[in-house]
Design goal:
Strand content of chain A: 15-25%
Strand order of the largest sheet of chain A: 11-10-12-13-15-14-20
Radius of gyration of chain A: 26 Å
Oligomer: heterodimer
Number of domains of chain A: 3
Shape of chain A: globular
Number of domains of chain B: 2
Structural class of chain B: alpha/beta
CATH superfamily of the largest domain in chain A: Pyruvate-ferredoxin oxidoreductase, PFOR, domain III
Largest sheet of chain B: 8 strands, mixed
Number of strands of chain A: 22
Distance between the termini of chain A: 62 Å
Distance between the termini of chain B: 58 Å
Helix content of chain A: 25-40%
CATH superfamily of the largest domain in chain B: Thiamin diphosphate (ThDP)-binding fold, Pyr/PP domains
């Protein structure tokens, strides 16, 4: 057997693992991403899975995917199209073939391409290549199921466990193709199955057998090398997804403020992982309360905030709807609170596992009365840490609820992250009212931030009452006085607006003037960034203005917009940020590019749209 | 040092706010009972005034926190249990009191109420039960009797009411007591017991709404026949009642039965002794469900059972994990797990 295969060097590669939702594709993809990151590539991932726990086996509805984009330079998105597709059954191939680059490599488990497999996936014929027009692709039909069985026949594992290991065989093959070391994954097995040495050995064996199988077959003509990324800033790195980063950012804010963190939450896709991560952190004194419902989640948090903890609640769109009334209470009582909304496809239950940016209006205004709130949005998996931290800082220092928007795409996506040091983060100094303050007035404010004091129960001489009824301007006692109400409405709005003085100015990526300014916010950053860069590389005068601070907007927003001929607002909704800008920065004409398919943008579609807009008179 | 807790009087717990319940409302008497109870609670538990937090939802009863000179939180409808839970978990050294009504706790807030009870979080819930919505001017509540004629049930309600005691015990409640608004002394006595109990204490106070449901409890509050129609339970004492203390409760088969001492061969020896500390909820449930005219209505502490509390468990778990934790700061956390150098 000729083992001399050619080695091609590539700058970046996209691999997509797909299979039945029981095939372990999320784990397979995560292991591949971790191995690539630990190897030294930059990585971006995109899990794409159905909301059913287990749709009927072998059907299109049950296909689960995980895309990994890795490169020898900064990688900003999980990639539009993949170079390599692993499809564990006919349904996975059918659902994902359209995402493979023309001429790409497709590895399928030949054992699943039988009559039953084809039928369940709804093929019209028993010939996937012709039916899906895959003649121009490199297809490898590998008998993965049978090879796995053969590999593990002496392992002592039962049949079910053996069959379940076929994802590791496939992973081994992909490791060979991209020349990945196996040791990271082997270490993972050792940790994960520490109490079951036979399972560790079986997984190692099947991974290696997959690797060797790929080395031996002629069908794989060459392997690919993606060197370590060298242009990344020096330092210590780790992998992080958006939900974990959010959880850790909240803990970081609590630590900086010197207060315990309290999280009252109710599980909801795709936000649950934040609660899970926080629940693990008893070691850092984090208190988590899995409430009886979304409303109790936020109300326990409000109670904890009143009592002097840094309190947060985490949710997704439907949960945010349920929290509306209590958010108004937090506005009225002027207590610090962070509400994290990991957006998903809506309305109603919508598309629980898919991404969207359609909660913006709800975040800004989804409350009764004049109830302004600070709204900020994270834009990458790792900067969820920074914006969760900033949400905490603003909430505690300005005595206001802050709504942090992320989305399913950045929440579940992961990327390598240069580990920051907490000494580089700013102080958080909440206006805590000292014991025994003379003449304490619950609603007296500081001139700078217009924030009232935070007076914890248990402190002497400052006993007071707060609540949802309108407050007297100073004393905080109930007031139905018409003029007082106007004053309070005004000052609550002014307090939120005042945050503008404390947030950084808006940056522009690219030149500060030009033909087209692409405007985005939140989780679409990576795709917009790559698309704008592609335009600029071809000499177009396009820049990107990507917002993290939504309410209030950064001070210089208007000045930035004024320097471009056209403004195009791109978002994964029907134009919510565009309309918000129309209200707040009224003198400009905002063009829109919107997509609501439960999917991120593709760089390709953005570039096409930008070119089209530039051509239009 | 700060031994103020020895010297409080009811006056110390009166706020500067004008009390705005209707003249004759039962809430006034309950407020007096609380202001009477708190100096005693302070003395017994060594609590200074700043340790008290009163939390409420929405309704007439929920105005309560404004009238007590302690920390107070007037929340939103139904959510007081959740807010109070957050306060207690955030700072377990506080003495947290929830003031709520039959609509606030058992209709819109039913979910939070039963889960607070189930968790056994150490808060004291004062449930003012007037069997009507007062603040919205007279609609039926989850405790209005079947057939009650109200503004929203002009032909009588067609739904079965909750019995708060049954609900509390059904949700694994460890402390349930009942009082009458008019009996300030008994109410205050019960409140001291509720405060001393570790865990969720629910005190149902049968309260008269003078405007929209006036006289709902006249059949047991009227001096003329109160003693014959209520029984005040005290742990370790015989279950006797009646003007002449000649009636008592016995267990007949699987049910309670009212007997007259000295008649039908029943003597004092046959009468049950109240055991509020018995973990078995069987007799407590029967006592809590007694209704006139078949039985006297039970007042006093019906159930008072020790068990671990949610707030203690949260605190203990955190302390336990922290003891052996390798991660002691956010920097430790960020650097934990798989990392690599570039």
């Amino acid at each position: 057997m000729d083992k001399q295969k050619s080695v091609q060097e590539l700058d970046e590669v996209v691999v997509r693992f797909s299979g039945d939702s029981g095939d372990g594709m999320q784990l397979t993809g995560t292991l591949f991403a971790d191995a690539s990151a630990l190897f030294g590539n930059d990585v971006s991932t995109f899990p794409d899975y159905p909301s059913e726990i287990r749709a009927p086996q072998g059907t299109i509805g049950g296909v689960s995917g995980f895309q990994v984009h890795f490169g020898n330079r900064k990688v900003n998105t999980p990639g539009d199209y993949c170079d390599v597709l692993v499809a564990m059954n006919p349904a996975a191939l059918k659902a994902n073939a359209k995402w493979v680059k023309r001429g790409g490599l497709i590895i399928v488990d030949a054992d699943q391409f039988n009559e039953k497999g084809y039928q369940r996936a709804g093929y019209k014929t028993f010939d996937a290549v012709s039916e899906l027009n895959l003649q121009d692709y490199k297809l490898i039909f590998a008998p993965i199921t049978n090879l796995t069985k053969e590999s593990l026949k002496d392992s002592g594992l039962d049949n079910k466990s053996i069959t379940r290991s076929k994802n590791m065989f496939a992973l081994g093959m992909v490791y060979y193709i991209f020349d990945r070391p196996l040791n990271f994954t082997e270490k993972f097995f050792e940790k994960k199955f520490a109490k079951k040495p036979e399972v560790v050995e079986a997984n190692k064996k099947v991974l290696r057998d997959g690797f060797n199988y790929a080395a031996n077959i002629q069908a794989i003509p060459s392997t690919y090398k993606v060197k370590q990324a060298t242009n990344l800033p020096k330092g210590k790195y780790r992998n992080i997804n958006g939900n974990t980063a959010t959880a850790w950012g909240l803990i970081a804010a609590a630590e900086k403020a010197g207060l315990p963190l309290f999280c009252g939450s109710y599980p909801i896709t795709p936000a649950t992982e934040i609660l899970i991560e926080l629940a693990k952190r008893k070691d850092l004194g984090v208190k988590t309360l899995q409430a009886e419902d979304e409303i109790a989640g936020i109300c326990t948090a409000i109670g904890a905030s009143y009592a002097g903890n840094f309190a947060v609640t985490t949710t997704s769109g439907p949960g945010l709807s349920l929290k509306s009334e209590a958010m108004g209470l937090a506005v009225m009582t002027e207590l610090p609170l962070v509400i994290v909304d990991v957006q998903r496809g809506g309305p109603s239950t919508g598309l629980p596992t898919k991404t969207e940016q359609s909660d913006l209006m709800q975040a800004l205004w989804g409350r009764n009365g004049e109830a302004p709130m600070v709204v900020i949005a994270a834009s990458t998996p790792s900067n969820c840490f920074d914006y969760a931290f900033m949400a905490g800082k603003i909430a505690m220092e300005h005595m206001t609820p802050v709504l942090l928007l992320t989305d399913g795409y950045i929440a579940n996506g992961s990327e390598p992250w240069r580990i920051p040091s907490m000494k580089d983060y700013p102080e958080i100094k909440p206006p805590i009212v000292p014991d025994g303050t003379e003449g304490y007035m619950p609603y007296a404010r500081d001139d700078k931030r217009l924030a009232r004091g935070w007076a914890f129960p248990g402190k002497k001489g400052i006993a007071h009452r707060v609540g949802g009824l309108e407050k007297d301007f100073l004393k905080g006692s109930v007031s139905h006085d018409p003029i007082n109400h106007q004053r309070m409405v005004d000052i609550r709005a002014a307090k939120v607006q005042r945050v503008q003085e404390f947030i950084p100015e808006q940056q522009v990526i690219g030149d500060p003037e030009g033909d087209l300014l692409v405007i985005g916010w939140g989780g679409t950053y990576g795709h917009l960034y790559d698309a704008v860069n592609e335009m600029r590389a071809s000499g177009k005068k396009v820049s990107l203005c990507h917002f993290n601070y939504i309410n209030p907007l950064p001070k210089n927003t208007r000045d930035i917009f004024a320097k471009f001929k056209k403004l195009l607002v791109c978002e994964l909704n029907m134009g919510q940020f565009a309309n918000y800008l129309r209200m707040n920065v009224q003198e400009f004409n905002y063009l829109q590019y919107n997509k609501v398919q439960g999917l991120p943008f593709t760089v390709a579609e953005l570039v096409e749209m930008f070119n089209q807009i530039l051509e239009e008179k | 040092m700060d031994e103020q807790y020895m010297n409080y009087t009811p006056q110390d717990f009166k706020s500067d706010q004008e009390v705005r319940w209707c003249p004759g409302c039962g809430d006034h008497a309950i407020l007096s009972a609380v202001q009477k109870a708190l100096p005693e609670v302070s003395k017994q538990l060594k609590y200074n005034l700043e340790r008290y937090v009163f939390v409420s939802g929405i309704g007439c009863s929920s105005r309560f926190p404004y009238y007590v000179n302690t920390f107070g939180f007037h929340g939103i409808h139904g959510r007081a249990s959740a807010i109070a839970t957050g306060v207690k978990v955030a700072n377990p050294s506080l003495s947290v009191w929830q003031v709520t009504g039959d609509g606030d706790a058992l209709a819109i807030g039913g979910n939070h109420f039963i889960h607070a009870v189930r968790r056994n979080i150490d808060i004291n819930i004062l449930l003012f039960n007037n069997q009507i919505y007062g603040l919205t001017k007279g609609q039926y509540s989850p405790t209005s009797p079947l057939g009650a004629i109200t503004k929203t049930s002009p032909f009588g309600t067609v739904e079965h009411p909750f019995r708060p005691g049954e609900l509390v015990i059904g949700a694994q409640g460890k402390f349930f007591a009942r009082s009458l608004d008019v009996d300030v002394k008994l109410t205050a006595e019960i409140m001291v017991e509720a405060a001393k109990h570790d865990g969720t204490s629910v005190v149902e106070i049968l309260q008269n709404c003078v405007i929209f449901n006036d006289g709902a409890y006249d059949y047991i509050t009227d001096r003329e026949y109160r003693d014959d129609r209520v029984i005040v339970l005290r742990h370790g004492e015989k279950m006797v009642f009646g003007k002449n203390r000649d009636k008592g409760l016995i267990l007949s088969g699987l049910s309670l039965k009212v007997v007259t001492i000295g008649q039908g061969g029943f003597t004092m020896d046959d009468i049950l002794v109240h055991d509020a500390y018995n973990p078995n909820p069987g007799v407590h449930m029967m006592l809590a469900n007694m209704e006139y005219p078949d039985y006297p209505v039970a007042l006093g502490v019906i159930r008072n059972v020790k068990d671990s509390t949610y707030d203690d468990n949260v605190r203990d778990q955190v302390l336990e994990v922290m003891k052996t934790a390798k991660i002691k700061s956010v920097d430790d956390l960020l650097n934990s797990g798989d990392t690599w150098e570039v």
